[in-house]
Amino acid sequence: MVRYAFAFILVSFLARAQSVDPKPTADAEEALPPLTCPAGAPLGTIELKVKSGSIAETLPLQEINHLSEGDAVLYSPVLRAKERRAGEVSLVLVPVDRTASPDGLQVMQPVRADRAHEWAIPRTMSLAAFVYGPQGLSKKKVSGFLSQDDQLVAQLADYAEKTSQTEALLQALSDNASSPASMNAALSGFASQYGLAVQIDRNAPAAAQAQVLFATMNPQLAAYNPLATDSNAQRLGETASVAAAAATLFLGSPIGLAAGGTAMLLELRSIAFPGTLFRSSFSQPARVGVHLCGQRGVLPPHTRIAYIWAMRIPNTPNPEIRIGKADNLPLGQTTNVTVETSNVDWKYLQRAREWALEDEHGKRTAVKVLKIGNARELEIDLQKVALPAGDYRLMAHWDWSPFYAAGALHLRPLSDFKDARVDPQSQNGLLAHAGKVAVTLRGSDFEFINKVELQKAGDEFATPEAVRFKLPEGPRLGPQESMDVQIDTASLNPGNYALLLTQPDGHNHSVDVHVLPPAPRFDNLPILVNEGVSAQHYVLKGERLDLLAKLTAPNAKIELGPPALGGTERDVVVQLSANLSANMLANQAPGTAVPVEAGLTDRLAVLSLADALQTTGPLPAIASSQLSLPPDMEIALRPNEFPAGYTLTAVLDVRNIDVKSELRLACAEGVGAQAGLHIGSKDAVSSLQRLSSDQLFVSYDTSGFPAGCTLQAWLDNGRAGRSQPFTVAHLIRLPKIASVTPMASLAAVGNAVPAGLHAYEVRGENLEMIGQLAWDQNLGVEVSRLPAAIPGKGQLEALVVNLPDPPNPGAPLYVWLRGETSSRVTTVVLSPTGSNAARTASSSTSLP
After folding, report:
1. Residue 276: is it exposed, middle or buried by C-beta count within 10 angstroms (0-12/13-18/19+)?
2. Degrees (nearest 5) of the Cα angle 660, 663, 667?
3. Could you tell me if 615 and 529 are in contact, meaning their C-beta atoms sit under 8 angstroms apart?
4. In 10 A of CB 739, how many CB atoms?
């Protein structure tokens, strides 16, 4: 029965106390707030302090780390107005070296609960239990029964540990200012006593929080709802918060002592001590001392009750901790700091008190520090602390002794991101529908960033989407003036967006970012420049060329024309500098390339186009031409004129051509057809043959070109360039005169003929083009009538004019075309048999 030793001691305490002086040792305090408990009922408010030697300051027993010989535990009841504290109190102590104690456990003399008392500590202790018996305590049956029972001590230590964890949990859950990390740390410590792991969302409703707690602690209670109006028989108490649920779970059924399931006293109550009832208690912080809470309830007849509040005393030296690598903290925020320490020091580190930050001048500022579960992190709360930026040492007290964490904490302000911007080169690559794109931000200190989101700018209904980010060194590892984010543009359209940067203060800072359309596509790079040409035209082809703002190249000026054909073409004129033209082009072999930088209208950085400007050989050229005119033309042609509608034949003197060169023909006025002839080609309307290395013979039917066309030709060597246009001929429409016949009578003319003139009928085609006629090259007679079609003769026309007689029988007829001021000689003459009575003239060309 040695395993029940401690329980036997408690039962022995239940003898009714003898008469004591009822005068209280603590004055009633009218200003004390009401005593409340999250579960159970209040047992009273007490102070348990430890005094050490000559040190004036006393410390709460539950926070003490060393309890040794020379120390004293001071008990004081805190009584409210008209409160009477019945019963007795005592301490049960477990020495570190139980072999030095004759009884193994040290039971202090019970004293009145309503009076202050001081217990001297005879030796170093590892555990203390405060016992309160409302009906009194007695020590008479204890001295002979105490023994060295390791199992009993272990059970008491386990109970003390569970008490500590429960109190920490209740304090965290009941404090609205508790951070999620500190609350979960307290909950994890509570659950760790049962080998469980629990995470609670403080933003969830109280019922949901409680259900998570109960479902984790006991799967059979997964459906338990503490806010429901009814419950099953295992209902642990009416609760309105998770704190109440946790406290109720700790207090449990009247088994009580071993919080959460150890049945140590169940057997004792039912077998050895049927008239006793033991119940656990826990403390809640009070303005003065602590509130004790426990289950009262109705007791069976002849049953007494005792409440036990246990606490462990670790008796460890000052902790040794070292600040982790992430030692930069934002001012005014709560931050978790990783520390390095031993398992033992970490286990009891929450018992350190009076945490403070000490500056380089030794000035200390109190801060709130919480141990965060098993993560080896300390939560340092700077929200209500006014400190300047700088380097500080973290320190605390271990009982009365100060200790310092190795390493410094660097306090820095949060960034305002006023100068934050997207790196131009990164912006250049942020293209719509391109997938995941890495983007670099610069211009601020990004070390405290904890969240990045992307949102469409100007869209009030847009939902921010999380964006992955990476700091060069890592979070809180010192100032970092850049940060990489990964933006998935697969579903993003071109437009303006905002990167929302969040720091521990929860405020969003917007950085403008532009998702760009794809960059222009160039289909015919490089731009070719020919030797010996200082400025030349080139047509860029591709897509989205309208995005081009400028093109620059070393020693060259590139002028952009307006976009054409929906941005698929863009004219450029390249002007080479004298240096580039003379040194690079004239003295180097064709094929030399230089880079071109493209400035885009919607990009901060230029687009580099390697080898986009390239030299080539000299341009092709047409030096001269020799026309072959059609035979038997009635009307003379002037230089470079060619009759429209005839097949043009000519020899072209050319330079710098090759087998792939193409001859192009078109009107300079931009009217009519365009033709392209390849060397060696021949068909029904055209032929282009190479006579020698620098001569081409061309034959082309000009019916596709209108009269008045200035027919030009140029040589096109493809990407190697093309020649300047060369004027081959001016196409002119000429009249065709078939005959000139004297009129037989004036009636045929319809008007009187002036003196000295005779009426003639001119037959032919295109006669409307004749402005004047004469037998003399200088004295033209104006044609005032229009030609008339001859019925049944197709295009044959007749024109009546008044002319003088020719000066001689072989005199040619002269024609002035409309709009011309000089005459053209024709091959038309009067017939040798002509006379005043019957004059006729004809040309060598017969018409129908």
Report:
1. buried
2. 155
3. yes
4. 18
